[in-house]
Amino acid sequence: MSDAQEKTEEPTEKKLKDAREKGQLARSKELSTALVLIVSAFMFLMMGNVIAEDIYLMTQRMFTLSRDETYDVSHMFSASGEALMSVAWPVVAYMIVSMLAGVYGSVALGGYNFSWKSAAPKASKLSPVSGFKRMLGPNALVEMFKAIAKFFVIGAIAVGALIFFKDEALHLDQELYPLNLFHAMGMLEWAFLFLTLGMIPIALIDVPYQSFKHNKEMKMSKQEIKDEHKNAEGDPQVKGRIRNLQFQAAANRMMQDVPDADVVVTNPTHYSVAIKYEEDGNRAPVVVAKGQDQLAMHIRKIATAHDVPLIPSPMLARAIFYSTEVNDEVPNKLFMAVAQVLAYVYQLRAYKAGKAKRPKPLKKDLPIPEELRR
Hints:
Layout: H1 13-21, H2 29-62, H3 67-71, H4 73-107, H5 116-119, H6 123-126, H7 128-136, H8 138-170, H9 179-197, H10 199-218, H11 222-233, H12 236-257, E1 263-267, E2 271-276, E3 286-292, H13 294-305, E4 310-312, H14 314-323, H15 335-352
């Protein structure tokens, strides 16, 4: 496989977002299981005595029925309901907390996500070939090792708990009721807690493994990244075509304003800048069009066709071209130079109309600041 096809690059934000929409997230069943069991164990430890006491009261109530309750079905159901209700609230609270722990455990790694795409039926899931691949693949091997690890870890803890509580369990029959009930409940609480703590090392190993596995599955090749960027930004040829069309549209709009310009300042072969000044307006002189090379020649051609004066001033043309955008006012630092050009143009118009003498030639060294010289 070539370097371009090897999946060695970290996944992009788009790849992770698309995977999330498909329901492809890092998930750890061991983390969820461990969290549910540990929370349940601590809840059992805190509420075990309450549950034991309620069970005692329930059995006491059921074994002390009156004669009427024994022979009357309605009284029998009423007594049973009272007995069950006495133990219902701690059991319900226990179940709710365990359920919340299960929900949190399932989203603790990877975050909450709901995707219809992952819930949709897939033909590959019904394929026997795909099923055998999943059963015999590397993931199935990892799951088998985890199952073996859980068997030995939990088994070892269970044997240890049995040995630890053996003497106490064998002497329960010698204790008075209900003290033996509470004693047995206490042993169950601690034994359950010890068993659930055995899930912690398994979850601690599984969480980073699932994160590593997900990141490895999401990795991309250099070619995939290039293709993604290409699709996101568009085909370069299409983009170039669009830029050309946009440039042509902008150039056409500029050309429409050239006939209304007062003057076109030129660098005879490379730059042309068309300037318009409204004497009755509040704005400074405005650049209505500018261009370089072929576009500059086109501006000069239109200006000549509409009797717009062409004034050669290379330094001023370059200064305006690089410092001012189309439809922007001329910078303050160029006011004096532009004012001299406009004054010369107005004098030239008056001369052509026979209203004034021929103006003196425009000065070549117009006042242009050093920082604007190009």
